[in-house]
Amino acid sequence: MSINMTEQIQKLKTIIKDVDKFYFSMNKEYVGPIDPVCIVSYSSKIIKVKALVMAEKVPAMYLPFGFLPFLVDPNHLEAVIAYLNDNYEFQYYNPETKELKGLSVLVGDKEYSYDGTAKGAADFFKQKNWTYEIFY
After folding, report:
1. How many domains does the chain have?
2. Which end of the chain has fewer beta carbons closer than 10 Å to its terminal beta carbon, N or C?
3. How far apart are CA 71 and CA 15, in angstroms?
4. 28 DSSP assignment
């Protein structure tokens, strides 16, 4: 079965409109911007990840503790993602509680500086010899 990625992104955006709370994987509530952009897929020889980019250019102040501005460059930007399963559905969404859990950051390397966009992360994955695809 082939998935129409444009339609899938729209479906995920519709679900997001109904979400009341967003959480990073350590149950830290995310209160930063939400503006879904695209779906990304990245993989190494060991893992494969599919995710919706929930917001781009997110300042460090909205990220988990390890990214607080006093621990990294205060101008550090990241893309916030929500993990998807193999069918490109949210992996940690609970429609009953209207919560989306398991958010993460796309790059997650405090030493790597990029513009905080899905497109800007491509070089990071290329340097690691990972495959990286963006679907709009």
Report:
1. 1
2. N
3. 34
4. P
d(CA 103, CA 85) in angstroms, rounded, equals 13
CA 133 vs. chain centroid, Å, equals 14
End-to-end CA distance of the chain: 19
- Kindly report, residue by residue over 20-66, the tens digit of the pLDDT: 999 998 789 999 999 999 999 999 999 999 999 999 999 988 888 76
Say how far residue 45 (Cα) sits from the centre of its chain. Answer: 21
The half-sphere exposure of 131 on its side-chain side, counting CA atoms within 13 A, is 10
Count of CB atoms within 10 A of residue 122's CB?
Answer: 16
The domain in which residue 74 lies consists of 5-135
Beta-bridge partners for 59:
77
Q: Please report, as a single letter, which amino acid is at residue 83.
A: Y
Task: Specify the residue for token string 């405090």.
Answer: 110
Confidence of residue 130 (pLDDT cuts 50, 70, 90): very high
